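User: Assemble these into one structure.

Assistant: Restating your components, then the assembled model:
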Amino acid sequence: MTVSRVLADPSIVAPETRERVMRAVEQLGYVPDLVAGSLSSRRTNFVGLILPTLTNSNFADTSQGLAEALGQSYQLLIGYTLYDTGEEERLVRSLLARRPQGLVVAGTLHTAATRRMLMNAGIPIVEIWDAPSAPLDRAVGFSNFEAGRAAARHLLSLGLRRLAAIGSEADKDPHDARGEARLQGFAAMLKEEGIGTGRILRHGSAPVSYAHGAAAMRVLLKEMPDVEGVFAVSDGSAFGALMECRRQGVEVPGRVSIMGFGDFELGRECEPAISTIRVDAKGIGTRTGLLLRDLFEGRGQETPPSIDLGIEVVPRGTTAGTGRSHDRNQTSSEGRRS
Amino acid sequence: MTVSRVLADPSIVAPETRERVMRAVEQLGYVPDLVAGSLSSRRTNFVGLILPTLTNSNFADTSQGLAEALGQSYQLLIGYTLYDTGEEERLVRSLLARRPQGLVVAGTLHTAATRRMLMNAGIPIVEIWDAPSAPLDRAVGFSNFEAGRAAARHLLSLGLRRLAAIGSEADKDPHDARGEARLQGFAAMLKEEGIGTGRILRHGSAPVSYAHGAAAMRVLLKEMPDVEGVFAVSDGSAFGALMECRRQGVEVPGRVSIMGFGDFELGRECEPAISTIRVDAKGIGTRTGLLLRDLFEGRGQETPPSIDLGIEVVPRGTTAGTGRSHDRNQTSSEGRRS
DNA sequence: CTGAAAGCGCTTACAG
DNA sequence: CTGAAAGCGCTTACAG
């Protein structure tokens, strides 16, 4: 028990004893067993993290941010759902069995059993990558619906009128609820402007990436050859669409403007650079980590349950005006909302 | 203890008792505490995974493969080193404290303390993403040196002679030992062919990605304007180099051929598609997972300590011959080695 | 087939 | 400032 004290807080042990213990630890290569420690102290220092996939630079950034903000004393327990609600339920159950002190979920959060388990877990639950007004417990994110609206508003502000959006199928099981919210925001904005809903193309299943964007663009160019502006629900998909245009000799942004989402490094480094909606992916992780540490230490009760980190429109090389812009709305940025 | 039996193996409990237990479990929402279970059974069912970074699609693929092969009963404990050996040591120590049953390391594996801890851990250690002839314990990967040689051989076979390779600085801490091995293999091949070592440009620090490739290419085009072929140590870097060429109006592959490494989805979907060296990133994870399960169950002792999954040259749109190809070596594939 | 006992390796009070 | 005792919630033999 004295060893335990030396390792936990050396200052409360007499210098001479401390030295003796340290020497023994060194010689034996003693590494304390945190499994036993966790059981005894009822603190595992685990934080569970549930993501749809890790092959998405945004989610990778979020988990890096979370790991950094939690610091060395907490260990992340990561699981992937592949956008499947059944898999998510299995994952929540097995993570909870490890007795994490908090659970961070960017999954689809669907089955009733999942919700019940989360509610009854007795630990802080943080839903990330969306900012619902009434989260299960807490939320850190932004409004995906607003992101879709902002994309539409930007394309409209350039004078473009024949618009489309590409995402994945919404009513199947793997499915991407956040991407769907962006599509709906996009359609809603067009409706507000009284120009129909545009063409909302739900193609293939989540997760969407390069190949998805290329395939969807191929379909779109065939069925709507005069399309002027396209919003893809992720930068990966936007990149695929851009490459498909290049293959078909369709000029971007000359003939069609393309707008992505997520501000991936890929889009910044691409030539032309991809116009996008920036979200602070790493910041979502960092903010979540800080919130959890507060909650673990009994602080943070006054933090609002839903934290909205906002979005920002970033116009770059893949969008351009038609010349006939009769724009009422010239803003290129949503700014920060909270 | 009967509850424990029902949950572990229902068949050994009388049907009636079993039913009673199941009903109670259901009603109470009982989730067994694996922390206590682990301590008692001395099996945590944890597998530690140490990666340089998750923001690299290859490593993300490897971890997905590993997770799938290990299956539901094992939980991955993931840590990032950011290519820093000190961070790696800290990570190994804290992972070992969780008493994993196996440890998978794609880190840089540098400090003496790290090696000592790994040797004394008493669990299977699998080094991945390289296949050294004498691993610490076991290894699953391929030869990075051979990958570099293969890249050089491919560029030479196209008749290109003014060659260069771009990677990151080798003698600092963060540094990428596997990327460096590729550079050295590249230089070695050129030497074998008696045409010097080419220009080996070690620029910036690991990890290398899009922006790195662009910056390195900028430097290279300035100091070696007549360069004919470039090997980048990752497809991310190759993509950045390709974009930089486009910005500067340098035709690829017309004026300069570019070759990457890793066969990222990005390179396949890019236009022109990036010539690369394919490694089976997900397969490395899968193979490692299967090996670990064998070892956990007392099998797999006869498996060779070092498993080489081989590499394959994949010529695509960013490399083309000069016309003056006096190639002795037309092979476009390394095939599978073991 | 089921239950009582011991113990996994720590931490947390509690004495001294 | 340091040590002896109890206990965290399971699993593993061992009896019955």
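Chain A touches chain B through 51 residues (CB under 8 Å).
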